[in-house]
Amino acid sequence: MKQSVKMIVGNWKMNGLAADLSAAVVEMLADLKGRPASARVGLCPPATLIERMVRTIDGGPVSVGGQDCRVEAKGAFTGGVSAEMLVDAGARLVILGHSERRQEFGESDALVSDKVGAALRAGLTPIVCVGETLAQREAGEAASVVRGQILGSLNDGLAGQDWALAYEPVWAIGTGLTPTLEQIAEIHAAARAAMVERLGDGGRAALILYGGSVNPGNARDILAVDEVGGALVGGASLKAADFLAIIRAAEPAVVAADGQG
Ligand code: PGA
Questions:
Q1: What is the pLDDT of residue 261?
Q2: Domain covering 7-71+79-232: architecture
Q3: Does the annotation list 234 as a binding residue?
Q4: Which residues line ligand 1 (CB under 6 A)?
Q5: Which of 40, 104, 187, 219 is the most exposed place for a label (fewest CB within 10 A)?
C-alpha cells in the first residue's frame, strides 16, 4: 500500500475565459472547503488567467500553475513567458515538455531540461511530461522511449526539490483511450528506474503522475496502480464536477457498501 499524498493537476490547455474561470473554480472551491481533499491539487489555466485564478482561489487549497515557460528570465523573446513571470502572477507549478509542445513546437529533451532549470531557478514546482507515440508503442519501444526522454529531460537540479514526472502516452491524450492498468504499471516502474538512473537517490521521492484520458470513471483504478502518484488531467479538468470526482478518487479508499469505490 502506498502512503504518499497523491497529486491531481488539471491542464486547461488553450481553454478558458474569465467567465469559465469563476464558474468552474468557485464551484470547486466550495466543495473542497466543505470537505478538504487529502490530495495536492493544482490547476494550470492559460497564462492570461493565472493571476485571476490565484485571486479567485485566495489562499484556498489549490495551487495554480503555468503550462510552459521559456528558459530565459527576460529579454527580446516576443510572446514568451518566463518562469519568473509565472511566479510573479502567483503560479507555484509549471507543466514542462508536454507532448503537444514537443510535437507542435519541436521541443527537445535538452530544451525541456533547460526549462526545468529555469523553473527551479524561479522556485516553481516542475511537472515534467514524457510519453510514447502509438507507433512507438506498437514497435515495442514504449519503455525505452520513456527512459530516453527521462534521461534527457530531467535536470541535475531536481534532486532534493519538489517536482513530479507525468507519464502521458501521446495516443491516450484527448482520445478516450487509456493503456491497461498493467501497461501503466510497467511504464511507471520503468520511469522510476530511469529517474533513479538519472538522479540517483534524488530520483526516488518525486511522484509519477499518469495522464491521458483520465476521467471520473477510470481515475480510482488508475490511481491505485503501483507507482501512480497522481494524475495530470486535461479535458476532464474543464468541468468542475468531473475534476472534483477525480480529486476524490485520489483519497484513501472509502469503499462503498456495494464494494464499488
Ligand atoms: P486529456 O489530456 O486528459 O484530455 O487526455 C491530458 C493532458 O494532455 O495532460
A1: 40
A2: Alpha-Beta Barrel (3.20)
A3: yes
A4: 11, 168, 173-174, 211-214, 232-236
A5: 104
